[in-house]
């Protein structure tokens, strides 16, 4: 199997852009026509509605973008039926040839971390058989618990030919409370990035990019630039572009001089660019996707100069 | 409704001990008699087996201990059916009068954190109706993303009269990689503890203990003692006692001088003190529970001297 970092680079090359479509489905934002078909009698109905919406989004974006990122919280919030919807959405995305990053920001220790990792990536072995669970191509992981919390995810990823993205610098306003604390002359997120780079060195693909990437928010282009320069081997997953305020110019700093190395996520900006009452919501999604692709293609080109 | 910190203190007082039974069900550790009833043809069968095991454990421990802590990873790893099992286990635990801490170590930002929080605690509103999802009494949260990642959990907890436990110092060998980094003269976990204490100050109950507690591993009693002295208003959830190597003497430092303020978790030590082939596994669980209760009651008493 082609290593994850090479699959990701190839997907970006094929589609010609680094846009990752974030699937953060929320009942209150869904098109009204769709909500009406799923009268809310139970969470199962909500789950069915968000599944239908996400499958439609996948159809609309699959030929245009390389990657999608389902946010597990919005499926989990619909209970077990929501988790079935998550499986259906990931299955369809992979059928459509998309790379799937499960954004679940998991983090725990020892056999618990193994359970999360195998659920997300390699699948679970019971009674001598292997069962896929969420079956994503990559998963996001929280580093607070340290090396032995991240390693089971890396091990599971390497068994499955998949990848891990570790939170380094997040895009929220309060991210700095702990991530910016300075010790030994460097901020915490810089120490985390250095550890991620070390873990990543064991899984480099043919372009010098590896299977343990970093989540770095679009909200500070100077931090993006500094981390990009320090760690040329890291794939960056960049949230915060679009609805969260990061611009294409902000994210340009995330690319390497060869124009690859970063995928840029937009969730609400691409999937909810309409009012629930708008009958032309599908057209709005296509237009928003095309607009983001245009901006990001330009940003990639600018990085290459 | 009685505030969470008071409910927790009352449960510890009623049962006379601070033992939290961790539910980390693993297929390969289950009693063979039980596994044979659930031939592994699918993950649904594995989920049914772990549900049956956990429900039996609840029956055995409910009259003896105040708190149980299902570990969401071991349910999630069985897919959607595993999440249904988690719901059934939490429902039964609450019927039995136990306090339930959902150990899912979630952490994300803004509306995503809200979704995780409402799923765990307050329930979800859709179409003007409220639906409970996991419906726990408290949930564990990862602080790496900062204040705006933790606040939605606190808000959801306060709407529901429930609680939050924030990871401060974890019990794994590699915990220090980031948690021990020193800035402004204090380790990162000490800065986190100070932030938790500040959040907790807004939800104090009648004994001066609040609704935002701290997870502090049993593996270093000097750290426990230092955090206990610094933050008398924090409930501590202490993992690492038993199978992970922490002794009752180690955890004694977690209690306040009034003998309350900490619940001590044991997972494998209490729930898997048997070989899968042992037909007397239920007796073994009761004995291990009684033994741990004896040790911890002594530790609580020692703290009071």
Give an overview of the whole structure:
- The structure is a homodimer of 305-residue chains.
- Chain A has a single domain, classed as Alpha-Beta Barrel (TIM Barrel).
- The first copy, chain A, has an 8-stranded parallel β-barrel, surrounded by 8 helices.
- By secondary structure, the first copy, chain A, is an alpha/beta fold.
- Chain A has helices at 4-15, 32-37, 43-61, 72-76, 79-95, 110-120, 147-160, 176-179, 188-200, 221-230, 248-251, 268-271, 281-304; strands spanning 19-23, 67-70, 99-106, 124-126, 129-131, 138-141, 163-169, 182-183, 186-187, 212-216, 236-238, 262-266.
- In chain A, helix 3 runs parallel beside helix 5 and helix 6 packs parallel to helix 7 (147-160).
- The model of chain A has no long low-confidence stretch (mean pLDDT 96).
- Helices cover 47% and strands 17% of the residues of chain A.
- Chains A and B meet through helix 4, helix 5, helix 6, helix 7 and helix 8 of A and helix 4, helix 5, helix 6, helix 7 and helix 8 of B.
CATH topology of chain A: TIM Barrel
Summarize the amount of helix of chain A as a percent range.
40-55%
Tell me which oligomeric state these chains represent.
homodimer
Which of globular, elongated, flat, extended, rod-shaped describes the shape of chain A?
globular
- Summing up helix and strand content along with how strands pair, one would put the structural category of chain A as alpha/beta
The N- and C-terminal alpha carbons of chain A lie at a distance of 33 Å
The strand line-up of the biggest sheet of chain A is: 1-2-3-6-7-10-11-12
Number of strands of chain A: 12
Strand content of chain A: 15-25%
